[in-house]
Design goal:
The chain has helices spanning 6-14, 25-38, 44-57, 64-81, 99-114, 123-127, 132-142, 148-154, 159-169, 211-224; strands at 194-196, 202-204. By secondary structure, the protein is mostly helical. The relative contact order is 0.06.
Length: 225
């Protein structure tokens, strides 16, 4: 708050405690300067709200430190939940080499979180992904019959399995989780799509799965969410 905003705040306080508003203009100016120093980082709207909340619970006169302490607690709570990471993809207007622009955007983002204009970016939102529980459920359905360390070692030799795991972790539909509806394929769940060849031979699709199978998997995934 600035000194010219304080008289209106003191006027609101005076409705509950008339003694706080001096009649002498010079004294009012000095009091406003003092309160403005204490409330320099406090938004006007919050200070007004804090006055009402104070007198709703306390019969004692409010001090500027009461308001700044309340505001400090709000800021700490918001910033404790905000991890402070900066996602460049959310700011395509920035040049990757523009350090000053990056710093300004980072500061603006933090100020928006502090003032409640933007929700905090919490650690869970970054690490868990959009559907962590869903990924766990789908990975469990995919099944595992070996220790994770062994599975990691074999991943380069099991490209189909590795691709299915990557797809699930990315929150995308897994076509091999459903039967293929294509008449000339009809691959069972867990089996890759094929196409007919000469002499009754079957050839694996280079695309991985028929589009209609992907659509079917998408429908199943959406229904489960």
């Amino acid at each position: 708050m600035t000194p010219d905003q304080i008289p209106l705040l003191l006027k609101q306080v005076s409705y509950a405690d008339p003694r706080v508003l001096p009649e002498d203009p010079a004294e009012l100016m000095g009091l406003a300067a003092l309160w403005a120093t204490v409330l320099a980082d406090v938004p006007t709207e919050y200070a007004m709200q804090a006055v009402g909340e104070h007198y709703a619970k306390s019969p004692f006169p409010i001090k500027p430190s009461d308001i700044s302490t309340r505001w400090g607690a709000v800021v700490r709570e918001r910033m404790n939940r905000h991890v402070g990471t900066f996602e460049p993809i959310e700011h395509p207007e920035l040049d990757p080499d523009d350090i000053a622009g990056y710093q300004a955007a980072l500061l603006a983002e933090r100020q928006a979180v502090v003032h409640g204009q933007q929700p905090p970016t919490e650690l869970k939102a970054i690490t868990a992904g959009p559907a962590a529980e869903e990924v766990e459920r789908r990975m469990a359905a995919l099944g595992s019959y070996m220790p994770p360390s062994v599975a990691d070692a074999l991943r380069p030799h099991r490209p189909v399995r590795a691709e299915r795991e990557r797809t699930i972790r990315a929150g995308q539909p897994d076509p091999l989780a459903v039967d293929c509806p294509v008449e000339t394929c009809r691959a069972y769940a867990g089996r890759p799509c094929t196409r007919p060849g000469k002499g009754g031979a079957r050839h694996a699709l280079t695309a991985g799965a028929h589009p209609s199978r992907t659509e079917a998997a998408t429908a199943v995934l959406e229904a489960a969410r």
